[in-house]
Amino acid sequence: MGPFMSPFNNVLCMLLGISFTVWFTLLLVFIIVPAIFGLSFGIRSLYMKTLLKVFKWATVRMERGAKENNHLLYKPYSLNSIIAKELTSLEEELKEIRRNCSSRELDGSSSTTTGPSPSSSEFEMSDTFYFCRRGIECIVDDEVTKCFTAEELESWNLLTRSNYNFQHISTRLTVLWGLGVVIRYGFLLPLRLTLAITGVGLLVVFTTMIGFLPNGRVKNFLSEKVHLMCYRICVRALTAIITYHHSENKPKNGGICVANHTSPIDIIILASDGCYAMVGQIHGGLMGLIQKSMVKACPHIWFERSEVKDRHLVAKRLSDHVKDKSKLPILIFPEGTCINNTSVMMFKKGSFEIGSTVYPVAIKYDPRFGDAFWNSSKFGMVNYLLRMMSSWAIVCSVWYLPPMSCQEGEDAMQFANRVKAAIARQGGLVDLLWDGGLKREKVKDIFKEEQQKLYSMILVGTQEDRSHS
Questions:
Q1: Which of 201, 237, 294, 408 has the highest CB neighbour count under 10 A?
Q2: How far apart, in whole angstroms, are the C-alpha atoms of residue 409 and residue 407?
Q3: Which value, in Å, is the radius of gyration of the alpha carbons in the chain?
């Protein structure tokens, strides 16, 4: 049996070798080389348009099948789907509650009895209705917790992200869904893993080699080219289709780039269009190896775990970096955690205390092709990246906003809120005042004290008005 197996093994090895060579040749010609030079053959755009047509057909077929089977389709859970809230101030709401209570008392008494004035400055029991109602609203319709759950879709994208198994509505949908699984896991995932390993491997090797060069223009030039090349390969590994707007506002050396944060791949999305100095905590393992190689070629700012808690040390290193106009702009995500692509939460004021020019950037992902949000409390980094690489694509828009500086009489927190509002407005995101740290921590006492101060100021202010009258 041995003589017969030997030719078979030789043929098998030859076929595997040919397949491996063809595979990498196709990758090199159609993906890696175009990524190095920043070119595109339009394959990803054609792929996206084809997907949209398939999604549209699947949605129409799904709606028809659900109607025939009397099946209630799942509708997305939006920020305003449970409780309709009006943007009114505390003072206006208290006046309305007091007015309603006063009118009811008048209706239940004789015409000679007068109820309390709606503008009374003293505490009234009816005021508690406001705080009780707001407390119940926060429990039923928690606008903080919803920012850390996957953004739901009204249409179906052939992925298992909805509450119903839409593929069981009809045989055609079942076949289409099964074909999608084969394509995503049998073709796209191996392709993307190969590209990701190639991009990360080249980044580690080339940045390590550049690190041996003396500091100067040549080193900076090669470092920027290598970073751009490797990040663009990694973008292809996610089949990322990115549209950049207002490139004339791109961050410049000596500045700070701040952006809303949805996913760890935000870094790749931005760095594939321009080089940045990264800021972060030192890690171990593979991530630590990548950080050590990167910092040899480019002045990234890595902190030890104990140093991150020292605000003064962090501020000093950031300030020293931006003072050198030859160094790359710093990329910072002031939210400090990932939000689910629907909102922007409170910006930490640290990066706005330095006094440097701030370049705001808004990032908005298209959830129809894949959920880019990283729920770190549910998925580990490896699991998350595998989910990204097995989705259809990552489609997003990036807007470079005009540079902003701290205005006269404006403190760091006010400056941060102004930048946050601009990002939310451009990206079509909800501007929330809550701290993203509430994802893992309890509400800080300062939030409770603000509501108490606001209520007391209304009462005290009204009393002062009465004393002057």
A1: 237
A2: 6
A3: 28
